[in-house]
Amino acid sequence: MLIDSNAYIGHWPFRYRRFNACETLLNERMDPFGVELSIISNLNGIFYKNTQKANEELYNEINSRNAFRDRFIPFAVINPIYNGWEDDFKTCRDQYKMKGIRLYPKYHGYNLDNPACIELVKMARDNGLPVSLCLRMVDSRTSSWNDIEEEWALSDVMPLIREVPDAKYMIVNVANNTSLDEEETALLKQADVVMDTSGRGLNNIVGLLETYGEEKFVFGTHSPILDYCTGLLRIQSLRPDEADQKAKEKMLSGNIRRYLNL
């Protein structure tokens, strides 16, 4: 079984994207590639001033067909410096039944040490919801001049994990430097963290597996921004001495199934 831990619907304002609706993602990406479930958020939430409208759109689209409800796992985009975010969180948790939250500090204009951000992460922790952090949305070298240029390395999210070490974290599109110092490496090993395989930083997945173990990695595509194959090939191409079939199956679906209690 394959479970994609990092996908989206919605529009990217600076570039046309295909497969960015539930129907096309399901029929033209997931089914042809044998993906059973996908965790999805709404790209529109990165750019809407009121991110809750994007969560509402996602909820309505998923609930427009039974097939969508069976195959998609929604994560809410929450902006903790927008008034009423606490109510947005509760609505997404209780009414929309969303299974996690995604944060975009670079786009929404706050730092990870912002007290409201820390409060949101603690709220997610107390409700058993993972917090997803995306290290890169698009390559800044080829993006629109209207888009942001800042990107994260793995070390940039460690202060939040240090501040709330008992929360659950998903780190997706690990596209840049994965080097951590000794203290940060120990913290990441101990934390309830998974990283998806979509980002180019996972080109060194063998070394990362040796450091952190197979339980820390999950299949992800970052669709429709990135292609649908690379995140899968990073796992499937591992040699038997690098990861046996049992380890591959954990990364392809077992780890995220355990992580989300599916």
From TrEMBL:
<dbReference type="InterPro" id="IPR006680">
    <property type="entry name" value="Amidohydro-rel"/>
</dbReference>
<feature type="domain" description="Amidohydrolase-related">
    <location>
        <begin position="49"/>
        <end position="261"/>
    </location>
</feature>
<dbReference type="Pfam" id="PF04909">
    <property type="entry name" value="Amidohydro_2"/>
</dbReference>
<dbReference type="GO" id="GO:0016787">
    <property type="term" value="F:hydrolase activity"/>
</dbReference>
<protein>
    <recommendedName>
        <fullName>Amidohydrolase-related domain-containing protein</fullName>
    </recommendedName>
</protein>
<dbReference type="InterPro" id="IPR032466">
    <property type="entry name" value="Metal_Hydrolase"/>
</dbReference>
